[in-house]
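Reopening closed ticket. The problem is back. First fold of the pair:
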Amino acid sequence: MSTAAHAPLGAPLGASPDAPFGAPRWSVVIPTYDRHATLTACLDRLAPGAQSLDAAAYEVIVSDDARNPATQALLARTYPWARWLPGPARGPAANRNHGASAARGRWLAFTDDDTLPSREWLAAYDRAAAADAEVEALEGRTTCAAGFGTPMFYAPVNERGGLFWSCNIALRAARFRALGGFDEGFRVAHMEDQDLRERLKAAGVRMQWVPEALVDHPPRRQPSGVKLGMLRAAEVRYLVKHGAPAPLKWRLLRGVASLRLGIVRSLPWSADSLRALGSLLAELGTVEWHFAAWERVARTEFPQPDPTAVAQQRFAPAPGSLPR
């Protein structure tokens, strides 16, 4: 392991690498925003007894960016073992950080409110963490058992590792805090996890693929091509921040076209195939129209590539002192 990985952690939270006395080993952090049906399905699979890991070994934190009293009531009524927090309403990266700031466990396991964790999910992560004291970041397998069906549906499938998508990752809490968590400059659900992966690598953090830590991600219908295109602002920020070589615009446009056309070709032809092609044209047009402004903003923020930077963000007090 590199020297960087052995450096003192000095977490912004002032937290000890060890959990407070009596705290669980694991804290599951779920960001949510008005998705009661999918959140319910996810929490059903994290209930005491639903996971093979002893329920005393983990806690579940739901950080709610909608700050919806109905969500709070749902958890209080049906899932009293889970903690509800009003989110900061600054995007998914900030919402995950907010949930993590309330965590008491030595390890943080992140998933999303529309996933279905397998029974062995946490136990597989727990075994991997116990087997190697040097590992500080874990990545699990994400499937889409139902399949896409048509190219207008999508799910973040991760069968081989290396993607580090936030719907199924785990990190040692002290290391996560030492790095500043997710970069809250990523205000939409795109690229914030890739950015964290690159910062972990730059810090020399030991990472491990744990395919037994499985979650399933049911497919969801794609938003409009314009909305998909607007998400690419985060990708431009990521590319500039991490020093990707020019020309960025053509690299981005080619990547989008290749991804979308590959999905269309891989599935049976249908009316949704035509809709997907129309959506692709709208997505590419949106990127073309906004790219110059996005790049200008990103280069103002990062005059020189700085993969270690995170947007200014505040963390809560140490986990041991948080109110329950």
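Second fold of the pair, where the issue appears:
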Amino acid sequence: MKKLGLFMMAMALSLGMVACSGNTASESQEEVAASTQETLEEASEEGAEEEMAQALESITVMSVNAEGEKEEVEVPFNPEKIVTLDAASLDILSNLGLTDRVVASITPEAYLESYVTEAVNVGTAKTFDLEAIMETEPDLIFMAGRGVDYYEDLTMIAPVVRLMIEGNVVQGTYDNSMTIASIFGLEEDMQEKLSAYDERISALQSFAEGKNAIVGICTGGGFNVVGNDGRCSIIGNELGFENIGVEAEADTSSHGNEASFEFVVEKNPDYIFVLDRDKATEAEGAQLAKDIMENELIMSLDAYKNGNLIIMENPGVWYKAEGGFTALGIMLEDLEKVLLK
């Protein structure tokens, strides 16, 4: 209607000018056409700008609800006030140069501490202070798998984007990074950053070809084996080590399945990869993974004798920041140091 009104006005003005003019008919017609076209172009540009502004007020992204189901969520485009309730989203935001917008965060991993010195601390990875979050009046809240019991309450405060890793760490990190980048119109920047990992991953894949491994978590003084469905799954899924510690259909997505050291000896893997969960969670008085694994049985294996017992140098990143952009780089570096030396 607005464009039609402008068109009619342009026509009326142009015809009026023709009536009062002494120019020839053809000259007048050209003037009418030119004037009308100019008016329409201005109206079109104005309308497009209005439509673009309206479209960019919000954006729809994929998220995971409290039931673990993927769903579309409408969130504000380019939000100014953000709450991060997981390490991975804060990690990704830091790589996009957006941590100045983080008004509240849970206690961060050490490598992220410098990014949230001005943000309100609203709890830990599992326990959130809802009142403190509400007081920051956020435009958007990011969270991951933990703290799901708070999900519905959080949605009453602001739109919630819940991003998770489902088996494939590298692809999940890429997808989640691009989801967050799209909310701020920074997809090209993020894509360029992500491509920097391709060569490093390929080098590790080449090394892993034809080799097998047992992957496990040390916790509570014991050793649990994990498959390709949980933490450290990058070792078997993306890098390509044959994980011989568990059957393919076994569910080890939480903390793995308890295993004896006799089991490890029986399997006799080329490599043993270990995540120290107690160190990652800073459990008081816990026995270190190194002390647990360096026992008579494990030390009898060729894997140990060949220096192939690998305990992750940065367990907190592997355990609590999986899915972050910088976190992926740290995880790759933990492996590169010992495998590509």
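Update: turned out to be a display glitch only; the data is intact. Confidence is low (pLDDT under 50) at residues 1-29. The chain has three domains: 2-53, 61-195, 199-339. Please close again.
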